Amino acid sequence: MLAALCLGTISALGQDKIEVGEYASLSGGNASFGQSSHNGIALAFDEINAAGGVLGKQIDLITEDDRSVAGEPSTIVRKLISQDHVIAILGEIASSKSLEAAPICQENKIPMISPGSTNEKVTQVGDYISRVCFIDPFQGKVMAKFAISKGWKNVAILTDVKQDYCVGLANAFRDSFTASGGAVVKNSTYSTGDKDFRAQLTDIKPTHPDAIFVPGYYGEVALIARQARQFGIKAPLLGGDGWVGESLLKVAGHALDGSYFSNHYSQDDPSPVIQSFVKTYQAKFGQVPDAMAALGYDAAKMLADAITRAGTTGEPQLRDAIAGTKNFKGVTGDITLDADRNAIKAAVILTIANGGFQFVQRVAP
Prior knowledge:
Layout: E1 8-9, E2 17-24, H1 31-50, E3 58-65, H2 72-82, E4 88-90, H3 95-108, E5 112-114, E6 129-131, H4 136-149, E7 154-160, H5 164-179, E8 183-190, H6 198-204, E9 211-213, H7 218-230, E10 237-239, H8 248-252, E11 260-263, H9 272-285, H10 291-310, H11 317-323, E12 328-330, E13 333-337, E14 343-344, E15 347-353, E16 356-363
Parallel strand pairs: 2-3, 2-4, 4-5, 5-6, 7-8, 7-9, 9-10, 10-11
Antiparallel strand pairs: 1-3, 11-15, 12-13, 13-14, 15-16
């Protein structure tokens, strides 16, 4: 997959360019996130440049790999601002990394648009920080409501305590689920990079949960699913968009069959906008785009739309244009940013069956 990436600077025609920065996990534990979102961003800017660019200028994308390592996003963002003189920054998918970089963008008055960081704290950093995804409270409520609708009254929660995303989603799910009459029969935790979950599963198994909510990232989720089945735990797993990753089903095998997670879009949606995107992306990268690719694409297109509406890349006009986004027609839905610059749009619930993801339902905000 790395061979398909267009790393570094996307060449632009002529010297009159608009420099846009991107930081992403192109390697390391969250590489699937970063590679997909980068591909989506690169595709969007390729299309925009081929159509004449923005304000008569070509967009030049400067991409840096944060290697999925804490500490790298802040270093990269400082470099993009001080050395590359970017007018805006796209990134990250992981909420912890966005929370690390956002204060630097805010301090320097450089707009940052996160494709997929759903922790609600991200945009609370300041008025230069926006996102094209929904936030954890909405995603948590969606999955809690779905669990109740399935008649599941007793649920265990297994959370990655090292990730802001995972903790936020777990809290939102728990609050909504218990408020609707459900019971959390066990709260267990793990840390990013763990491989052995036998101790947690040993504690969970005697509670006989109807389902287990695992709001983690794909690497650990796949291992948790395999070990749960080896322990004889048959309850379906529930999760969020952090499950989306190329290796999820390769590692989990059939262990996640019958499980459910919330996501930003479904590649099976018959919408002409979605199907056109899927076709174009597949032709360029040789694979079907996941939700992170779609979010990256929408983040890039929304930034270009805001530049066009602002009529300038200067501040604070660009910041205000981004914040004023209304009914932007994205691949992941019609995007309107609220007062906190969070995207108000629908979520979808997918199930896992026959070696792939299948659309279950769409849930409006």
